[in-house]
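User: Run a structure prediction on this.
Assistant: Running it now.
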Amino acid sequence: MNVVIVESPAKAKTINKYLGSDYKVLASYGHVRDLPPKDGSVRPDDDFDMSWEVDAKAAKRLSEIAEATKGADRLILATDPDREGEAISWHVLEVLQRKRALKGASVQRVVFNAITKNAVTEAMANPRDIDMELVEAYLARRALDYLVGFTLSPVLWRKLPGAKSAGRVQSVALRIIVDRELEIERFRTQEYWTVEAQVAAGADPFAARLVVHEGKRLTKFDLADEAAAFAARDAVQAATFKVSSVERKPGRRSPPPPFTTSTLQQEASRKLGFNAQRTMMAAQKLYEGVDIGGETVGLITYMRTDGVQTAPEALDEARGVIGGLYGKEYVPEKPRLYSTKAKNAQEAHEAIRPTSLARNPGRLRLEGDLGRLYELIWKRMIASQMEAARIEDTIVNLDSADGRTGLRASGRVVTFPGYLAVYEEGRDDPASGEGGDEETGRLPQVAEGAAASVRSVKADQHFTEPPPRYSEASLVKKMEELGIGRPSTYASILERLRDRSYVRMEKQRFIPEDQGRIVSIFLEKFFGKYVEYDFTADLENQLDLVSAGDLDWKVLLRDFWTDFNAKIGEMGGLGTREVIDALDETLSPYLFPPRPDGSDPRACPKCGDGRLSLKPSRTGAFVGCSNYPECRYTRPFGSPDAEAAQAEGDRELGVDPVTGETVFLKSGRFGPYVQLGEAEKPKRASLPKGWSAPDMDLEKALRLLRLPREVGLHPEDGKPILAGIGRFGPFVLHEGTYANLPNVDEVFEVGVNRAVDLIATKRAGRRGGAEAAALKELGAHPVDGQPVRVLSGRYGPYIKHGATNANVPRGADPLEVTLEQAVALIAEREAKGGGKKAKKPAKATAKKAPTKKATGKKTAAKKPAAKKAATSAGDITDDETPF
């Protein structure tokens, strides 16, 4: 028998069908071990020794794997073909070796880029050993992230009240967002004008813009005001023109390569409105397999990759599909071959593509996110192997008779669409012109030297605009350009920033929250090296050297830790007041901008002689007066303009067409909310996380006020399913069962099928929760016969016997604890006053206690026992997980 280990049950089911009865495919359900979220899990003083903890849910599955492996001839580790997949295989093997479950079974590692029969069977025919260089790169990255998080976050908590956490890559991503916000705030709008004329030269009129005025070629800001613009307009109106030149330049636009992880996330954001996490969840399902006609089939290749190359057989299939659907003229003479300088050799796999291009998205008819994402991937792959688009650029120059005024018209036309018939890349920000060229129509045929007449002229006023805030697409692109993080980590990094409330999303853009801004500036001020873009990118390159076998991972960790630990030590002597004063000085231009009347921007508006400055508090920083407590003036952290805008936020949004009552947007003690009418107890709804007061309109307000909404009737009992927003976020509800929704938007969109699936998953999890928490059954206690078990709790693994809980010693593997060790730990715990001592079982011959006669007197009520202290030296304690 051959035992095969993969990550997910969906993969296991599909692969088992391909391999047949000689193979047993089991799922690890992702990572099976991780560093416990408490201090001491990575020990630099012990040469970076690490303590690993088996996940509670994985313990039972590992036991099943161990049981199956004991009688197997081969253990085949077939986890994903990347660093994380290699690490999972290593973890599984480590646990099985500790359990002594292999017993002569050979161990092999196989990888496949797609879950198809050919890919799986070919991988099985070409096994290898676990790549320890990839595992060491994983260990180094995991140790670095842990050391930064668990060392730097406590510094934040002590020195910066209200701060939540810091992370090695998370903090740099936050800095990118904050730096862009500072750039926007420093931006000063500049006025400029343009002059455009409608001109005819023996054919239909066309638009031409002024490029030469008074004999000088114009730059963007030469026409700086209305007077200059109107003078230029009049000069164009008065001049006579002729066509001085006509230039036609044929060109070609080549298609983009097939998707990598990063480009897939960017395009899904631009075109589908998906965030990175939503994209990766849908891609994971497409990769693992979708039921098509009663058969589960993997529809795309592996979705975590930096590579753009494609397998030869896929190129041949693409060319055949293109010829059949679009014609031979759309098939290039040779297949298009793409290459990239992959920053990580282990991630340089094949690009993301359909496993079979014959599976046209129109025929598959996949629903929801899967269908939309599959269509995007299919089109991109098809387009990448099509002929280039042929375009023609035309430029017409017109000069006045005296040569002092000149106009120019430009046009672009597609003469052959090529790949554009299937696919065109989206833009990061259409308003800024990023991500693509603006195409114009064809100009009429005009002859060089022909006379031209001006039909009309207009002068338009413009203002320069600040750079746009980052969307998910543009932020992922920026991080990739800087070499920060890796594409497979982007989704979790961005989600973490939102979860920590360091940023919020408005109109699909990242805006730093006040706390995020303070944390970023604190880190830049006191830990500048560790949030520098180049330093973080260089550290990623060093991790790549580890995965390539060119750098020892312990050397990397020692070099990093020596300097980082010394910097942490320096912060120990710095007081909170010194930190706040330094931040006050750095943030002064933002918190206290110059006043129009030239007065001191720090002067207290209440008492007059006090001075405003940054103040700390447990709930975050604020601005307060130096004359406290005599003067109690305070204002929230932020610029005075933001405060004034918030104070003026209450407004009417419109009238509810159903009730005829006015809908208001108001600001309350707990933030902005919407209100229907002005009755004694009007209906109200708070704005959910991610919704901002400036963006609220009548339609959004009514959607909130009409929650919860009925999604439909449950198919099993015909009772309603509701969707709403509660204390813990968006949810669906059926007969007392609440299931979380991933985002607020889904409250208004979720359908019956999706809701039923979520509720069923929640109920199944509830039933299986108690069983999953038990890591190991040790047997009966020798004194009282009660069961002794190893359980997984909130603060780590512990031993339970009756009412007594005892910690598993730090560094010990909970699955290796014996009954004898557990009994000793329980006795030690009871000796310290924790739990109840084990009682010997009563003998069967014990005499029955005599029954007292009723005396008619009331028994005095016993005083309640004093409550036990909430914590004691022996209780399980743990630090808050900082990331």
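Residues 275 and 472 are 6 Å apart (CA to CA).
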